Amino acid sequence: MSNGNRPVIDGTQIAKAIEVINTAGMMAPRVDLRPELFDTAIQQQGYRMIWEQAMYCSCYASDSEQPAYVCDSCYGKGYKYINPQEIRALATSINGNKDLDRVGLNEMGTAYLTAPSTCNIGYRDRFTIVDFTTRFSEILSSTGRDRLRYPAKEIVAVYQLNQEYRRGVHFNLTEDNMYLEWVTDELEPDSRYSVLYDLTPVYIAMGPIHDLRGTYTLKGMKGMEGFMQLPKQFQIKREDFLADGE
Fold it and tell me: pTM for this one?
């Protein structure tokens, strides 16, 4: 119908038009992540660890770009570790096999670590998982006071070929659990012998799996948007499984 040259719009059409406008203007409710819940889960379910931050040791030679293997600071590892602190972190997929997964080749002795959002994990950072025990063997050269690679929880055995040496009889373990001090002269200077001992496992951060993790959230009643970091995930590897130069 028309009134002169003007179109006539009935009430039903007007109501539909208003409904379309209102629907177009409606926004879905905003859903924000709550970063504090991630950290709470890590605190409740994570393992106790000593986290140490890694930095290059200045013993690196400028010509060969290799660390000094007799360095008293890094002991030839090329990295100095500072600021130890106890944290809790999740460690998953710890296994002794090589598997292909979505990340790539999962080598023996690797795991995935998720640390709290407050921990800014870096490449080569070190994690000592304090409530676990593993076993390690190495060969030392006798000097009378011989440094172990790791602090020993317990000395299991010391041998030179078929000759066994006993703690408390032939040697003692120092209070810091880092040195064997010989109390007899049965070993010739610079002679080699093997040691088997228990230790707390140490893992090294080899690279980020999920590095850029964060979310924008609304803060307070004013609706101000802010950014918060989420926990990062790193691939870690047992230090004694690292290849030379790795």
Answer: 0.72
Return the H-helix or E-strand segment holding 19.
Answer: helix 11-25
Show which of 199, 215, 238 is a domain's final residue. 199
Evaluate whether 49 touches 57 at the Cβ level (below 8 Å): no
Query: Are residues 183 and 207 both part of a single domain?
Result: no
Which residues, listed in sequence order, are joined to residue 100 by a DSSP beta bridge? 105
* pLDDT tens for each residue of 4-34: 555 555 556 555 554 544 454 444 555 555 6
Contact 85, 51 (CB under 8 A): yes
Domain carrying residue 158: 134-199
Verify that 100 and 35 share a domain, yes or no. Answer: yes
Q: Tokens at residue 8, please? A: 């006539």
Tens of pLDDT along 213-244?
A: 666 676 655 666 776 777 888 999 999 888 76
- CB burial of residue 38 (10 Å; 0-12, 13-18, 19+): middle
Structural domains in the chain (count): 2
| Sign, Cα dihedral of 53, 59, 62, 64 | negative
Query: Strand, helix or coil at 175?
Result: coil
CB-CB neighbours of 125 under 10 Å: 23
Q: How far apart are CA 224 and CA 227, in angstroms?
A: 10
Whole-angstrom distance, CA of residue 56 vs CA of residue 131: 28
Tokens 């006071």, residue?
Answer: 145
Q: Is residue 1 part of a domain?
A: no
Element spanning 111, H or E = strand 110-114
